[in-house]
Design a protein that fits this description.
oxidoreductase activity (chains A, B, C, D); Gfo/Idh/MocA-like_OxRdtase_N (chains A, B, C, D); alpha/beta; GFO_IDH_MocA-like_dom (chains A, B, C, D); six-stranded parallel beta sheet; 17 strands; Gfo/Idh/MocA_oxidrdct_glycsds (chains A, B, C, D); 10 helices; globular; homotetramer; Rossmann fold; Dihydrodipicolinate Reductase, domain 2; 31% helix
C-alpha cells in the first residue's frame, strides 16, 4: 500500500554497528508514527563493493554507492545520514549540506573543535536555504531520559545541585582484546572521552537544561599496546575499517578512561566518568541528578525505568520511585505497546528519525543542532586540555580569528 | 536489493495490538537474521474495509482482504497468521491448514479444549503434507527466558523443587475501566487465566521441561459490571471488536484473577497467579524456579536480565547473579547489538518468526506445536474445573468419546 | 547508675537461637526506649546445668535454673519468656500464668489447636488478675512492616484485593543436612508450615487487618530421611535438643514446603508459600499487597525498605517507591539512629520487649494475644486438614464440645 | 554471672550520636563474641552534670565525670573512648595516652594534619609501653565491607583499575535546616569532606590495599547562611554543643559537598564524592571497584549485601551477584544470627570493640592506627589544598620542620 505522504530519499554512509541501527530506524519509524514525509531507503554507501552490496540486501536499501561524493550528488537523495568514523564526518557532512541535502551525523560531531566549528558554520549557512543538520545524540530519545528532561523542565526537582554521570563499559578489560579504529587517535579523535563521554556530556546538559562551564579532567590509558587483528574479525563495535591482515601489536593512542569534575551554568557541580574498563558493566549509562526539591536516577542497563525522588513528599512515605516508562503519556511510548511492554536500544534511533522528519516537515531546526554538537566538542576538548595541564579549563569555544 | 532466498507469502488476520506486533516481526526478521525464506507481507485481513486499508498502509502490507475465507484461498499466501480473539482461532486455523497454508496462531490456542483438540488434530493431519502449525507463546523467545531453558537443560540448577510463577497486570484496577471483548467469556473464553495465565503455564513447562499433572485453583472476579464504551475508544488492549456506541454497563463474565497450586511430572510443586488487579504491576511476568543445585528468577519488567543462583559456589561468594542477557553467546542476541544494549518487547515476535521460518526451511515441526497449545488448554480447563469443584483436578485431556 | 523505674524480673526458658535473640532484646530495650519498668535478667532456665551456666554468663543472666517449674515459682520473677520447642509451650505457659507470671511465648503458640485453645483460655483467666500473655510474632515489629500496617490502616492502598506472601529459606536444600527437632513432628508440630508459615499468616492478617476465612493447601516433603547427628553439632537453627550421639538416619515427619490459597474476610484472595527448599533464598519473607488505590511490597532480605505504589499519582510519575524506613517519624526508628542507618534482625525483638513492657506498664493487653496466636494456629490446622483432604477448609476453630 | 576474663575499664567522652553507638557496642560485644577482656562501662564524661547523669543512666554507665582530665586520671579506667567533636580529639587523646590509657578516637582523627601528626607521634611513643591507640573508621567492620577486603586480598578481582566512591546524604538540602557545630569550621575542621569523605577515603584505601597518592578536588558550599537554633533542638546529627538560645543566622564555614579525582599507588584511578545535598540519599556509602578480573559494589543503604562480578565466568552466565553477607563464614557473622537475618548500623561498632579488645588481649596494634588516621587526614588536607589551587596535589604529609 502506498504511503500518502511525500517521500524523503535517504542515503546512508557506513553500514557497521551504527549503520544497522540507523537502517532499522528509517525502516521502522513510519510503521509506528505519523510522519510528514515517508523515508525511502534509497542508497547505502561504503567503499567495498561486495560488502556494501551484501549490507544493502541485509539492511533493506534500494541501491548502493561506493563513493560518497556520488551519493551526495544524487538527485533522489534528500538526506545524507553519516555513520562513518569521526575523521570523515566534517568532509562528508559539509559536502552534503553544500549539495543541499539535509544531514544527520553520528556523534561525536567531529574529531576536533576546528572541524566541528566548520560543520556548525556550514549548517548555519545551509539553514538559510531550509537545509537542516542534526547530530545524533540518540540517548536523548530513550523515553526515560526524555521524561527526565520533562520533569526537570517542570521544576519537579527544583534547582540542580549535583550531576553524577557515568558511562561504564568493559569491552577493553582484556589486554588481549584487539586494536580497532576506535583506539586510534587519528580515526577516532579520542577514546572513551569522545565515544561515550560525549553522550553523558550531552545527556547531562540536555536533562538539566544547563551548560558545563568549566572542567577538570583526568585521562588514563591502562593498556597501551594491543594485538592487531585482520579485518575479518571485524565486530559491531568497530571493525568496519578492516586494517588488513598484518599481525603484531598496535599502539593505543586514545584514553581508556576519562573522568572529570565540572561546574554548570546554574551552579551545580558535576562528576563525570567514561570508561571501557568497568569490568561487568556493559553499557551502563548512569545519571543521577540531585535538586533542591527532588532527584532523578537512570541506568541504561535498565533502560525502561526512571527513578524519581520527590522531596515534597512527607518523609515517612518519600522514596525513590521506580517509574516504568511505558505509559501512553510518556514520551514516544503511546505509539508502541501497552504499559509494561518495554522498548529496546534501537528504539532511540527510531525516535530520532521521528523527531528529525517531523522537524523537516515543519521546516523547524531539528535538535540537537550541529552547533549543539560543537558545544559538546568544546567540552570534550576542554577536558583534554585540562587533563594535559592538570588544571581547570573553561569550555568556551576559542574565539574565532577575526 | 532483492533477497536471494524464496519468498514466503504471509497473510495476517487481525490488526490490533497483536497484529501490529506480528507485522513488525515479519518486516524486521530478515534484516537481522539469515532466513531460508523471505517473508512477504502479502495481505492483511479485517472486517472493516476502511480500517483494514488504513492498517495495511500503516503496518506495511501489500494488499487487504475483508473476508478471511478469501485470504485463506489466495495462492500467493503460504502462511496464515491468526491474531484474532480466541473464539475465531479454530475456524480460521483449521480452514487455513486444510487449504495447505502453514499457520501461526496466537495464544491461547482456542477458547475450549474441544476446539484446541480439533485444531491439534487438523495440524497433525496437515503435517503429513508438510504443512506446519505453531502456537504463539512468544515469551519463550525472550533471550533471558531462552537462556533459562538452556541452563535447566544443562542441569545447572539440578532437580526442580519449586516453580513460582506470576503474571501481574493492573489495567482493570479501576472499576470504571470499560468493558472490552477480553472480559466477555464468549469472545475470550476466560479472563486473566487464558489471556495471561496461559503464558506462565507455557513458560513454566517450557523452562523446566516438565508438565503440570494436577492443579487446584481459585478464580475471582472483583468487578462484575463495567461501563460500555463505544468502539471509538478502542485501545491496544482490546478495542478491536468495537461493540457499537450504545452506552450502559456490561457484565464481566470472566475471571479478573486466577491462582492455582500445581504438581509437576518431576515432583516439583508450583504456585501460579495471573491477575489484572495487581496495582502498579504493568506486565510483570515473574518466574522463580528453585532446584537442588541452584535457582533462576526472571521478571519481564526487567526483561533483559536473568538471575541465577549457583548452589555449587562456596557459601561465602554465592548470590543471585544478575545476568544481563545481551551477550553475543546468548540466545538470539548475536544478531542484534553489542553487550548492554537491551532488546524490547517486540523482539520476542521477531524471534518467533525466525524460529518458525527456520523450521519451515528445514521441514521441521516448529515449536510450540498445536498439540503443545492443546496441552496448555487442558491445564487451563483443569484450573477452571478445579476452581468450580474446589478440588484437585488432573490436567490430562478428557478421553474422547469412542 | 540505677534506673528510676521499678524492676521487672524476667525468667527465660531456652537459650538457643531464640534465647539469644530475646536476651539481647531484654538487655537492650531500656537503653534506647523509655520503659515504665526496667527488665532485670533474673534467671535463665535449661536442662543441662553446665550449658545453661555457660549460656547465662554469655547472655548476661543473673542466675540459672534447670527446672522450669522452679523458675515459675520464684518470687523475683515477674515474667516468663518461653523460647523452647513448641511441644512444651502449653505446659510452661499455662503453669506460669497460673503462678501469676506474665508470659511471652515464642510462636507458633503451640503444636496443636487444642493446646493453643487451652493456652488462650488460661490467658483470658489470668487477665482477670492483670496477668498478661503475648505471643512472639516479632516480624510485626520490623519498622517497614509496622509502617505497612499504618499505611493500610490509613487507607493509602484502598480495598485489599491480593495478598502474596512467601517465606523462603534454603537450609534443607542439601539432602545431607542433618535431622533436627524442627523436622520431628512430635517436637515441632509441623515443618515449614508452623515454623515460618505461621509468620506470614500473622503478617498478612496483621498488615491487612483482615482474617483468613478459608484455605486450600498443599504440603510436600522432598527429603524424607536425613542423617542423624550427635548433639555436638547443634546449630542456631535448631540444635538445642541434642538427640544424643547415635548415628544413622532419621525420618522427617514434617513438611519441607507448604503452599496454600486463601480467602480473606474483606474479599481479598491470597497465595501463601513457606519453604526451606528455595535455593539461594536465606530468609526471604516477602509480602506484596495490592489494593484498589495502591500496593505495598516488602522483602525481609532488604528489611529496612518498604515499597509503596500510590495509584492516585498521575500515571506518568507513578511507580513503586523504595521507602528507606529509617526516618525519625517511622515506627520505632526515632529511638535509634539518623536516617539511612538501618536496623537489623534482632531489633524486632527489642521492639517486642518495648511494646510488651509498655502494655504491662499501662495495664493493657499486649498484642498479639494468645487468642491471636490461637487464631493463627487454626489457620495452620486448616491448611493441614485441607492438604490432607485436597479441598477448601474453613479456618474457624472447631466448636468446643458442650 | 561473673565473666571469667579480666575487666577492661572504659571511660567514654561524649554522649551524643557517637556516644550512644559506642555505648551499645561496649555493652553488646561480650554477649556475642569471646573477648580476652571484659569491658566495664565505668564512666561517662560530659560538661553538663544533669545531662551526663541522664545519659549515663540511659546508656548504662556506672558513673559520670564532667571534666575529661579527671576521667583520664582515674585508676579504674583502662581505655578512653573519644566521641567529641574533632577540635578536642588531639588534646584528650594525647593526654589519655600520656596517662597510660588505651585510646579509641572517633574519625576524623583531628581537624588538622598538625594535630593528627601530634596524635600519631603520641601513639607511637605510648606503644612502647604497650598502650594502644586506634581510630574509629567503623564502616570497615560492616561484614560486606570486610568481605570486599578479603576478596581483593585473595586476588578475586585482579589488578584494580577504577575506584568509584560516594558518600551521599541529604540532611542539609533544606536551606532552613539549622546551623550545627558540624557546619562550623572551628569545631568540625571541614564539612562533608572530613565528616563523611573521610570514611570513603579510608574504605577505598582499606579495601584496595592501596594508598591515594595525588588528588584534584572541588569543594562547594551551596547554602552559606543558616538559621541558628537554640540548644533544645539538638539532634542526633550534631546538636550536642548547644549553641545557646540566641536566634538569627549563622555562617556556614565548611563545604556542603566535596568531590575529587584521585590516583592510587597501584595505578588505579578514583572518583570520590561526599555530599550532604544528595536529595533522597540518606546514608548512601557507595563503593564500586573494577579490577582486571572482576568488580565489587557496595551500598550502605543495603548494607548486608556485597555485589561481586567474576570476569572468569563464561560471558553467558557472568553477572553481578548479590551476596547476602549473612553466612557463618562471612566476617563477624558467625557470632550473630542464621543466614538471611541481617545486621544493622550499630553492629559495626560492636565489631570495632571486638577487634580492638582482641588486639589489646594479644598485645597487638589495633587497626586502623593513629598513623593510618593521619594518612587519611593528609588526603583530606590535600583535597582542600587542591580545591583552593585548582590543581593536583600530592597526599604526602608535609615534611616536618627540622
Amino acid at each position: 500500500m502506498h504511503p500518502i505522504v511525500p517521500d524523503l530519499g535517504i542515503g546512508l554512509v557506513g553500514y557497521a554497528f551504527m549503520g544497522a541501527a540507523h537502517s532499522q530506524a528509517w525502516r521502522t519509524a513510519p510503521h509506528f508514527f505519523d510522519l510528514p514525509l515517508h523515508p525511502r531507503l534509497r542508497a547505502l554507501c561504503g567503499r567495498d563493493p561486495g560488502r556494501v552490496t551484501e549490507a544493502a540486501r541485509r539492511l533493506g536499501w534500494e541501491s548502493t554507492e561506493t563513493d560518497w561524493t556520488r551519493l551526495v550528488s544524487r538527485s533522489d537523495i534528500d538526506l545524507v545520514d553519516v555513520c562513518t568514523p569521526g575523521d570523515t564526518h566534517a568532509e562528508i557532512a559539509i559536502a552534503a549540506l553544500r549539495a543541499g541535502k539535509h544531514v544527520l551525523c553520528e556523534k561525536p560531531l567531529a574529531n576536533s573543535v576546528a572541524e566541528a566549528q566548520a560543520m556548525a558554520d556550514a549548517a548555519d549557512l545551509a539553514a538559510g536555504d531550509g537545509v537542516r543538520a542534526m547530530v545524533g545524540f540518540t540517548y536523548r530519545r530513550v523515553p526515560a531520559v526524555a521524561l527526565a528532561r520533562q520533569l526537570v523542565e517542570q521544576g519537579r526537582i527544583g534547582d540542580i545541585r549535583h550531576v553524577r554521570a557515568q558511562y561504564l563499559q568493559d569491552w577493553l578489560t582484556d589486554p588481549q582484546s584487539p586494536m580497532t579504529w576506535r583506539l586510534d587517535k587519528d580515526k577516532a579523535g579520542s577514546g572513551a572521552l569522545g565515544d561515550i563521554g560525549a553522550h553523558i556530556v550531552d545527556l547531562a546538559q540536555h536533562i538539566t537544561g544547563e551548560r558545563i562551564v568549566t572542567v577538570n579532567g583526568m585521562l588514563e590509558t591502562f593498556v597501551r599496546e594491543r594485538p592487531l587483528s585482520d579485518g575479518s574479525s571485524a565486530t559491531h563495535l568497530g571493525g568496519d575499517t578492516g586494517r588488513g591482515s598484518s599481525l603484531g601489536t598496535g599502539q593505543v593512542t586514545v584514553d581508556d578512561a576519562a573522568t572529570f569534575l565540572a561546574r554548570f551554568t546554574g551552579g551545580a557541580v558535576g562528576v563525570f566518568e567514561a570508561t571501557r574498563f568497568a569490568t561487568g558493566r556493559k553499557n551502563a549509562i548512569r545519571l543521577e541528578i540531585n535538586g533542591s526539591r527532588g532527584s532523578l536516577a537512570f541506568d541504561f542497563e535498565d533502560m525502561n525505568v526512571l527513578e524519581l525522588y520527590d522531596a515534597d513528599e512527607p518523609a515517612e512515605t518519600a522514596g525513590f520511585r521506580r517509574i516504568l516508562v511505558t505509559e501512553p503519556g510518556h514520551p514516544y511510548v503511546g505509539s508502541w505497546w501497552p504499559p509494561g511492554h518495554g522498548l529496546g536500544y534501537e528504539h532511540g534511533f527510531t525516535h530520532q528519525v521521528v523527531d528529525l522528519v517531523t522537524a523537516l516537515g515543519r521546516g523547524d531546526q531539528p535538535l540537537p543542532s550541529f552547533r549543539d554538537g560543537l558545544q559538546v566538542q568544546c567540552v570534550l576538548a576542554a577536558v583534554q586540555r585540562s587533563a594535559e595541564l592538570g588544571a581547570w579549563e573553561p569550555t568556551a569555544a576559542p574565539v574565532p580569528a577575526a
